Amino acid sequence: MGLIKQVGALILTLFMLAGCTGKPDNIEPVTHFDVNRYLGTWYEIARLDHSFERGLSNIQATYRLSSDGTVSVVNRGWNPQAKQWAQAVGVAKFVSSSDVGHLKVSFFGPFYGSYVVFYLAPDYSMALVTSYNQDYFWLLSRTPTLTAQQKKIAIEQATKAGFDTSKFIYPSQTPIPVQ
Question: What transmembrane ranges does the database entry give (predicted)?
């Protein structure tokens, strides 16, 4: 009986972990994804609220290709209360194929979360990203601001994907004064 419970717990754990690297049913990751063009720094223009970025401004994500084929991830944001940068360092791996914008990212050892690029501007200037469910959303840009046309396209794509854009948070990307 104990072995059956252990196997059941293992199956349940594997099922739960697989769900964290899945994707929402109505969203497909971009294909013909070029990781080399995606590398570099992206600025967070909009997101849905979640605790790990709450209160931060000037949020950036920097991606670099590692020698082992994984992607190093450095997320950072300015905490105006503490007057310092908050930073998280992680690693990303492709879920299926390197030409599909579906990765799994870990900031905590063996635990991975899904990173699904579901819209990417042809010139790689703007990206829309979600996770395994639609509780997570990020609008990323290569520049700290978007043009009105870029923002319109992003909102249209997010709406089409089923996100409630009225709940988006737009963190400040104004320069931090040197102290």
Answer: none
Q: Hey, what amino acid is at 93?
A: K
CA dihedral 89, 52, 20, 105 (to 10 degrees): -20
> Nearest 5 degrees, angle CA 93-CA 157-CA 78?
60
Domain coordinates in residue numbering, the chain: 2-167
Q: Which CATH superfamily is domain 2-167 in?
A: Calycin beta-barrel core domain (2.40.128.20)
Please count the residues of the chain.
179
Task: Express each pLDDT in 30-72 by its tens digit.
Answer: 999 999 999 999 999 999 999 989 999 999 999 999 999 999 9
| Exposure class string for 107-142: b at 16+ Cβ within 10 A, else e | eeeeebbbbbbbbbeeebebbbbbbbebebbbbbbe
118: Cβ contacts below 8 Å, ≥ 6 apart? 27, 28, 29, 30, 101, 128, 129, 130, 157, 161
